[in-house]
Amino acid sequence: MEPRKILNVLGSPRKKGNSALLAKEVAAGAQSAGALVETFNLQKMQIAPCVACDGCRKKKATGCVVQDDMQLLYPKILAADALVIASPVYWFAVSAQTKAFIDRWYALNKIPGTLAGKKLGIVLAYADADAFISGAVNALRMFQDISAYLGTEIEGMVYGQAAKAGEIAGNAGVMAEARALGVKLAGAQTDSL
Ligand SMILES: Cc1cc2nc3c(=O)[nH]c(=O)nc-3n(C[C@H](O)[C@H](O)[C@H](O)COP(=O)(O)O)c2cc1C
What we know:
- The protein has helices at about 20-30, 70-80, 95-105, 130-135, 135-150, 170-185, and strands spanning about 5-10, 35-40, 80-90, 95, 120-125, 155-160.
- The protein is an alpha/beta fold.
- Strands 1, 2, 3, 4, 5 and 6 form a six-stranded mixed sheet that branches.
- Strand 1 (about 5-10), helix 1 (about 20-30) and strand 2 form a beta-alpha-beta unit.
- Helix 1 crosses helix 6.
- It is globular and about 50 Å long.
- Flavin mononucleotide (FMN) binds near residues 134 and 165.
């Protein structure tokens, strides 16, 4: 069997932040199970919000007409078997970087079903007491709705509380969940999720 291709997308401006750390653990789990993982940090990329020009919907259009770093990511998204999306919870939702990235999937959906069958791994970090008070549930629900709409499959959602960058490393439980999600996304069996 071909190794699975996993696109690991970091949506936090903090390079060594909590969501990035969890995503790194997902990647490590996936690689340990034989998957090929490529990681991109949205903060380092130029990704404009969707401007609703509908250029991608023109008859002859072959994709998004906005020329920025999304043009690098579109083929990677299409080639990937699984996407890991890691975001901090900002204002009871995902970060602006993450949302701009997702909004630009509009171009991929010119042909409905283009992303169907891909696996998703969702990773979130938040500072407040729990997933409800922090608003992480809103982000999780957003991903559930997106996934149902696109026909993708959420393989796991890993989320944990931490405020300072890197603090999540002290939460052994959520770090183990992240690693197990990686193994699962790679197509290997795991009984811990
Ligand atoms: C602009 C901004 C908005 C935030 N909004 C929330 C929020 O709504 N709920 C929450 O629990 N934490 C919120 N936080 C805290 C972050 O979610 C928390 O520090 C998290 O660990 C950041 O993840 P990161 O290290 O991956 O960037 C916010 C932080 C910032 C900078």
